[in-house]
Amino acid sequence: SLYISEYFSQSAQKLSFYSWYGNAKLFHFHVPEDTVLLRWLLQASRGKGPECTNMEITVHFRYGAPPVINPLGTRFPANATVRPSYSISITLSSAVQNTTFVNVTTPAAGDWFIAAHLPEAAGRIEVKGFSTPCPYMFQADMFVLRLTDMPVLEPGVAMPQTVISPAKPLHVKVFVPKHAAGMRFELRNCVTSEKKACAVRAVLGSITLPQSFQRIVTCTGKVNCSLALDSPPWEKWLQIMVESLSAANASVSLEMLASFTACRPGSTSSFLNFSSLNQSQTGPRPGSAGAAGSPTLPSGQASRNASNQRSFCLQNQPVVREDLDVVSVRYRLLNGPSVPVNSLSPTLLLLNLNTGMDSGGSLVISLLLNKTSVSLANATVVACVSAASPVLSLNATHNCSTAFFQGYPLSVSASSAEAMLIVLYPQTDDWFLSLQLICPKGRGECNAAEAKVTVFAYLTPCFNDCGPYGQCSLLRRHGYLYAGCSCKAGWGGWSCTDDTKAQSVGAQNLATLLLTLSNLMFLPAIAVAVYRYYLVEASVYTYTMFFSTFYHACDQPGVAVMCIMDYDTLQYCDFLGSVVSIWVTILCMSRVKKILKYVLFVLGTLLIAMSLQLDRRGVWNMMGPCLFALVIMIAAWVYHGVKRRHCYPSSWKRWVFYLLPGITLAFIAISVYAFMETNENYYYTHSIWHVLVASSVAFLLPPRDKHKKPWAWSQKLTCRYQICQNDREELYAVT
């Protein structure tokens, strides 16, 4: 046999602490056909700085779709299918780098996904630039070993083969045709080279993580062995590995035979399918026979179909796949949403999810039983949702299992007429929905009964659009798109349905009131600025108070939200007003000449607006103007002190009652903003920031100029008569 090795690599990604699915870094690989060995090379590394500590990296694997993970232990939505992912942990302790290998023998061909993340996020809000986070990097590479000339086992034809040694297993493959109801695999004439009893083991199927459904048949001391499979995967290559259990030097000769049991499907004629498709797209014509509902069969043809149902093992219902958007598909039944279900054979619906871009959403299937359509009150419609092949024996078993897949059961009855199933990240494949009417006393009780079940099936990026307390985000890894929910207001879970830590409506209203009304503390600063004739500064404070109030009213995660304009505009204006307020306050304290002060006001505001457009959350957008303004203020104070030959400001009362309290409030505000804010305490720590900053401004504003008199409102706004004195000089003519 000729083996070929291939190597696939992807660029490293920087890991993040986990708070929602978007923090997990996804790697997408494609395993080629006839692969007999898959080896993952996982490389994790960290920085060398003192901020880097021991860290545990969790890596999840899944075949066919991204892994469904739950590191936070939150609840999934009701009716959602949850199967634990296969995961390993990589620890970075004293070593800067860690290399781990993961081997998978006979892996399934197709898409494989790896997701890696750090432990749960601490929830602390870090100001960009104040601290340098430790970089944790992760890279996944894939090495495959595939067989170029894998023998093909033809159905119904015995193929003699020889297993040379236990170290060299034999690999063959057989193609499973469509509508195969069962498969029988046989090992015949098994003898060793030493003419002793045969000891071999045959493994059918490939490994798929997190769950693998390989079937194993072991022949020990037998000449012939066999294994029967129900519902093998349709239109796929099935890999078979035979390994010897005999002595190391003994070879094993045997014959392999695969045979299939065909399933004869029955369905509506193609003419009626096209007729219903045409009517569903263009609408029925007035007065036509099909205007009142779906097209009906003639009485003679209907009776013939009823008599032929016994010879069919399933009834196909035509389904049209309608692509709506990215990871958004709607399935439409051509014969109407109601599906006839009987007890003679299962009704089958094909849901196509094999484009390679459908596994990043949620498959939702909803069943609704028409109670008037079932004549038997105790009858039940049993349904199974499975991938690769349908479940064809619903009347015999209720576990919804096929040869290599564990399906998802559903049932509707007169007592419970509705059922829903949510498949999170469905694997790339053909999915089938099988329905059959089951009676408690056997099939004979309900041979003539028929139930009408309304089926709704669709693929959506996020189930229920993540609800009122979540945001559905479309994520991308190279060309692959998938969706995830980012929850808010304390809600959690895959679809933001877990209210364990959710904020009540009262708490949300309180948070909104604190963050908005705390900006009213700028009113004393505005009043002080107006009283001291700092009208430009008062205008800036008014601007900051207005946009900070309405930005935080729009930024709330819950239901207490009010946006007067676009969110991004409000955020930009809030950040701009905050930085410009600090800028004009420090320049006002410097007591430079008016013309220079106003030039610095305008020039600094323009530069601050530019820097905020480049990086809105950078710490130097605030610290840069502050430091530059402080340099100007200190230089001006030194100049005034040298010129007057004493300390400036000269009054000790100015220092004790104004400057020192204002500076103290400003330092406390910066400490709260930079080091104390978390996601949980944000609404009151940030409100404290508003109060402290606004109060410090009122203390730090310098007194008015000496040549300016206080506002004399009684003289400015006169509403009374005044006695005017005529100072004209009288001219007299002398004659």
From TrEMBL:
Protein name: TMM8A factor
The entry's keywords: Cell membrane, Disulfide bond, EGF-like domain, Membrane, Transmembrane, Transmembrane helix
Domain of life: Eukaryota
Disulphide bridges: C462-C472, C487-C496
Entry similarity comment: Belongs to the TMEM8 family.
Origin species: Himantopus himantopus
Compartments where found: Cell membrane
One Gene Ontology cellular component: plasma membrane
Sequence intervals crossing the membrane: 510-534, 595-614, 620-639, 655-676, 682-701
Family matches, as PROSITE patterns: EGF_1 (PS00022), EGF_2 (PS01186), EGF_3 (PS50026)
Main localization category: membrane
Region (Disordered): 278-304
Low complexity bias: start-end ranges: 278-300
Membrane topology: Multi-pass membrane protein
Ranges where the EGF-like domain occurs: 458-497
